[in-house]
Q: What sequence folds into this?
């Protein structure tokens, strides 16, 4: 029994040394080593009772990875689960609308053109009615059209006034003709 | 939840397999499988679905398909009337979407016909094939090579060119 455990310990130590040298030594086919595949290098540690070899597994840390994944799951589920429960409640207990012909003399409200109750709620309380949106776009277009028209007429007026000279623009200040000294022009022999 | 397809649209006529009288004393194992399926899967699912529908039937509400008023076309708009252009453009886009749906429906009809007829499809689906050919030719003529940035104006220009070609062809044919 003691010899058996000594044999096992020696075999594990030999295996560990071989695995360590294999990891440091270079490429070696993993199935040729013959020992069990350990996740990383192992080093035998004392206080091993007879139920197995206690190994100190040396491998790269997974602390940061597991912390990241835990935090990711936590923050996704923090709002994801309430949202999923709410949507399930709406789909089961409220349900989608049914398609119907527009009754005579009735104009449906603008949110009644959507099927899902959440889409209807968003269209009713958060978004503008499409008629208002349409009119807003047309108002923008109208303003821009009027601006274009005004700019073009201004350019045309400026061109004409410059050309004809009979308008209020393009008047240039000239000095007063009474300031001209005509004394050197008054005698012919100067 | 995505809608089921409309089962009534392409209704297949009922099959005419005759009821066979089994002559052996061994019972048909299919019946056992059918009853097992019924009790294990069909009944619970139907129960849950009907419970859900009972909850939803307490407050029913409806949705409608919006009917848009017709506005003057792009060819009826005056030059520089940008509001008229905007409305005609919106109407043209809606009409193009409607035409796309029409082509899809005609394609679905041909597919349903092929599925229904099976090996007889080449003889019996000739009408649907002809209809699909006409509809796709019409769609290609009207909206065909306008490209991603095609709008009502480019479509109108394409129509103008088509009419010019037609007139030229008529003039050439009448000579």
A:
């Amino acid at each position: 029994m003691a010899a058996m455990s000594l044999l096992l310990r020696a075999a594990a130590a030999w295996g560990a040394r071989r695995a360590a040298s294999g990891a440091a030594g270079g490429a070696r086919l993993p199935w040729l080593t013959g020992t069990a595949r350990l996740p990383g290098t192992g080093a035998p540690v004392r206080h091993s009772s007879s139920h197995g070899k206690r190994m100190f597994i040396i491998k790269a840390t997974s602390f940061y990875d597991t912390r990241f994944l835990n935090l990711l799951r936590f923050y996704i589920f923090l709002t994801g689960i309430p949202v999923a429960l709410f949507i399930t409640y709406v789909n089961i207990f409220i349900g989608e609308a049914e398609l119907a012909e527009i009754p005579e003399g009735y104009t449906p409200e603008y949110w009644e053109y959507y099927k899902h109750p959440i889409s209807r709620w968003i269209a009713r309380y958060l978004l503008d009615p499409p008629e208002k949106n349409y009119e807003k776009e047309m108002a923008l277009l109208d303003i821009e059209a009027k601006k274009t028209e005004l700019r073009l007429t201004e350019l045309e007026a400026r061109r004409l006034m410059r050309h004809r000279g009979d308008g209020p623009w393009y008047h240039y200040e000239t000095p007063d003709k009474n300031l001209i000294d005509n004394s050197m022009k008054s005698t012919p022999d100067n | 939840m995505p809608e089921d397809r409309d089962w009534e649209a392409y209704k297949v006529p009922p099959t005419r397999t005759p009821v066979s009288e089994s002559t052996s004393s061994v019972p048909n194992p299919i019946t056992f499988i059918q009853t097992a399926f019924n009790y294990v899967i069909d009944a619970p699912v139907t129960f849950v679905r009907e419970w859900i529908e009972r909850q939803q039937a307490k407050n029913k509400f409806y949705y409608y398909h919006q009917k848009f008023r017709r506005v003057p076309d792009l060819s009826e708009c005056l030059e520089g009337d940008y509001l008229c252009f905007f409305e005609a453009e919106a109407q043209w886009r809606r009409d193009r979407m409607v035409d796309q749906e029409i082509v899809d429906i005609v394609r679905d009809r041909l597919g349903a016909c092929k599925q229904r007829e099976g090996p007889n499809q080449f003889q019996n689906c000739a009408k649907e094939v002809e209809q699909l050919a006409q509809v796709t030719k019409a769609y290609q003529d009207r909206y065909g090579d306008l490209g991603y940035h095609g709008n009502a104006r480019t479509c109108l220009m394409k129509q103008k060119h088509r009419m010019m070609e037609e007139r030229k062809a008529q003039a050439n044919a009448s000579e």
Remarks:
- Chain A touches chain B through 27 residues (CB under 8 Å).
- Confidence is low (pLDDT under 50) at residues 23-28 of chain A.
- The first strand of chain A starts at residue 41 and ends at 44.
